[in-house]
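Session log. Operator J.P. requested a structure for one protein chain; no other inputs attached. Running the standard single-chain path with C-alpha cell output.
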Amino acid sequence: MFIYKPYSENGVMTNNIELKNKDIYEKIKTISNPYRFRILELTQENAIGVTKLSSMTKLSYTKCSDYIRVLEKQNLISKAKTGKSVQIKSKTCINEKGVFFSA
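Structure written below.
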C-alpha cells in the first residue's frame, strides 16, 4: 500500500504543528546540542572568556564562537566586552531539578 505525502521544495517532509510555547521549544532545541549545553553549564557561576571556553570544551575558537552566537540569538547567554576579551555568562539555571530560563 502506498500513501502519498507531500514534501516541501527541499524534499523534506515537514509537520506544521502549532505550538503554544514556540520560544521555549526553540530554546530547548538550541540546548539539545551537547557542546552548547556544556557552554551553559560552564558559564553559570562565572563569566568566562571565549578563548578559555574554547579550550575547556576542546572546540576550535571559531566553532565555540558559532555556538555562542546561537546561544546569544536565543537570549540564553549575555556577553560583556572588556578590552579585546569577550566574557560569556549563562542566563540559565541548570541543576538536577531541570533547566530554568530567565525571563
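Operator note: The domain at 22-90 is CATH 1.10.10.10 (Arc Repressor Mutant, subunit A).
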